Amino acid sequence: MKHRPARPHRIAIAGFAPAQALDITGPLDVFATANIIATTAGQPPPYQLELAAPRRGALATTNGVAMLATRSLREVEADTLLVAGGPGARATIGNRRVVNELRALSERVPRVGSICTGAFMLAAAGLLDGARATTHWAHFDEFESAFPGVQLERDALFVNAGRFHSSAGISAGIDYALSLVEADLGRPTALEAARGLVVFMKRPGGQSQYSAQLAAESAADDPQRFAPLLRWIASHLTADLSVPALAERVAMSPRNFARSFLATMKTTPARHVRLLRIDAARRLLTDSRLSIPRIAERCGFASDEAMRVAFQSQLKVSPSDFRARFGGG
């Protein structure tokens, strides 16, 4: 759409009550900001926006403020369809009438994406079978259980798998919407929209959804068991964090410590340390002007090459590219 066609690109966001409000308003504000940028420059607005639902009328949201759906799913004519998440989306996967309406709508729209748990509706419609997709991290296990045929990407903010896209929890929908603006209108417009909204332009799609510390605490059976050790590790990333060294700190044998840590935290000590070091490096790449080798040293990596390998493995982006996208301090 970079040639600015005569008519606006029609974007419809579909919600299911109760919908997550930010899944709707976040992307809408990205596209609306792109419209403002265009009209300020004396150009026609590139996007036409509307909210749809199974039926026209008030759409209940999770914050208690209803939104007005001006189209039903059967009435929508769009170039891009985005499916918002929320408790309603997950609850509606068993409603065959609505799921079939969404499938029929998706078949006539060139570009279809989901925000947060909106991926449940796309998967229920059979649109993600055999494809890569993501959703909100808190619902990974639920999603995999319900849709084993979908290749779930747990470490992605958004996934573009051909015509069907998906994005992760709530604010990741803004990152995804910015990626669509970049694809449609070019990077300068997307960057100006990001600045106008005071958000990053843009978190790489492969960037982890949440910090290593939050991930560990969320997955752990008993997050308090190793809490003192975890706090110590986070503040001593340049120390010897091998299994024998950590086992000695908690007065356990290396074998017993490794087994207990895995059973309790659902990850290995080495992986947890690596993710903490990546998180620390991300912050320094974003907020400082330190060189990449110096950041690698301060975060406990053996070398800047070791940090690069860790970033590519975990985030699918190099440290230098991460810094270029986020901007140094």
How would you portray this structure in words?
It contains 15 helices and 11 strands. Helix 1 packs parallel to helix 6, helix 1 (21-40) packs across helix 7 and helix 12 crosses helix 15 (319-326). It is an alpha/beta fold and 329 residues long. The strands form 3 sheets. It has a 7-stranded mixed β-sheet with strand order 5-2-1-6-7-11-10. It has a two-stranded antiparallel ribbon with strand order 3-4. It is 47% helix and 12% strand. It has helices at residues 21-40, 87-91, 96-107, 119-124, 140-146, 172-185, 187-197, 212-219, 227-234, 243-249, 254-265, 269-287, 292-298, 304-315, 319-326; strands spanning 9-14, 47-53, 57-59, 67-69, 71-72, 80-83, 111-114, 132-133, 151-152, 158-161, 164-167. The longest helix is centred in the first third of the chain and has 20 residues, at 21-40.
CATH class of the largest domain: Alpha Beta
Mean pLDDT: 88
Poorly predicted parts: 200-207
Spatial strand sequence of the major β-sheet: 5-2-1-6-7-11-10
Q: In the CATH classification, which architecture of the largest domain applies?
A: 3-Layer(aba) Sandwich
How many H/I helical runs? Answer: 15
Cα distance, first to last residue? 33 Å
Helical content class: 40-55%
Order of helices and strands: EHEEEEEHHEHEHEEEHHHHHHHHHH
- The CATH topology of the largest domain corresponds to Rossmann fold
- What is the count of distinct domains? 2
Shape: globular
Indicate the structural class.
alpha/beta
Number of strands: 11
What's the gyration radius in Å?
22 Å
